[in-house]
Design a protein that fits this description.
Length: about 300
């Protein structure tokens, strides 16, 4: 039995106004190019569809390794796939710096018995996953069964072994900022290496205000424990402009120490192409056509 830590009440007006204000910052020229390249390096290129095939995953891995023909454009941080496609991703990424992340714990619902969830995690790690993206039991969270939420995260962390654990809160189902803050606090105290907004299967997914709530929870946890926890907004971040505004939030809330792929990620499938198009615009002065970069 763990003592569930108290969480502060979130000021809804402050959070929404602060997120909106940070989203108005103007980023130009060299700072914009640096931010765009940093964004590429932070992307978890993701495919989580029932029609995923080894060929599709191999193509996505190729794009994650070499997003652009220019050598000054970095690789993506990771690819994120279902557990049974982890071996294919590992083969395709052998010798690269790109990590393989796998969703687990009965993604996306999380509604399976704990032993099945943990088997899911262990199998993904055995297949070679470097990172595990788990989902919390939102029903338990909303029913205030915080002990169950804690225990499942802690057990999943143990099952991860050497793999890093990202805990998906599915904020679109949690209802209020107060519940998001509470879930963030529980996840970090129970062993999360990252906290993540969403599965990408529920709307709303990542939003600036909910991300700001989670960033502030990470900041306060750091002040309390000295431990840095990573953050991953996922779902709904589709444009370079949006991504740059998220980076502004990170810098203003947590500082430069979190502006690395080790501490901040974007869960995305379409963001990368828009960022690459913006980089070409900054280099050449012209936008490329939508088919200039591969879709996968």
């Amino acid at each position: 039995m763990h003592i569930i830590p108290a969480s502060p009440t979130v000021d809804k007006v402050y959070v929404e106004e602060r997120a909106a204000a940070l989203g108005k910052r103007s980023i130009k020229k060299a700072s914009k190019v640096a931010g765009l390249k940093l964004t590429v390096s932070m992307i978890d290129l993701t495919t989580l569809e029932g029609k995923d095939t080894p060929g599709k995953v191999a193509q996505m891995c190729q794009k994650a390794r070499w997003p652009h023909e220019r050598e000054d454009v970095p690789s993506c941080a990771a690819v994120c796939v279902y557990p049974n496609l982890v071996p294919e991703a590992k083969r395709a990424l052998a010798g690269s710096t790109v990590k393989v992340a796998s969703v687990a714990t009965a993604f996306p619902s999380g509604l399976s018995p704990l032993d099945i969830k943990l088997d899911d995690v262990r199998r993904a790690v055995e297949f070679g996953a470097d990172e595990i993206d788990m989902v919390i039991d939102r029903g338990a969270m909303l029913a205030r069964d915080y002990q169950k939420v804690w225990d499942e995260i802690a057990a999943t962390k143990e099952a991860c072994g050497p793999a890093h654990l990202k805990v998906i809160l599915e904020t679109g189902e949690l209802g209020t900022y107060d519940v998001v803050r509470k879930a963030s606090h529980i996840a970090m105290h129970a062993g999360a290496d990252f906290i993540k907004t969403s599965t990408g299967k529920i709307q709303p997914a990542a939003t600036p205000p909910v991300t700001l709530v989670m960033l502030e929870a990470i900041r306060d946890f750091f002040y309390e424990t000295g431990k840095r926890i990573g953050m991953k907004p996922a779902g709904g971040i589709r444009t370079a402009k949006q991504a740059l505004h998220y980076l502004v939030m990170v810098k203003e809330t947590l500082g430069d120490a979190w502006l690395t792929p080790d501490m901040f990620r974007f869960g995305a499938s379409v963001l990368l192409n828009d960022v690459l198009m913006q980089l070409e615009k900054e280099r050449t002065g012209n936008y490329q056509g939508g088919d200039y970069f591969s879709k996968d």
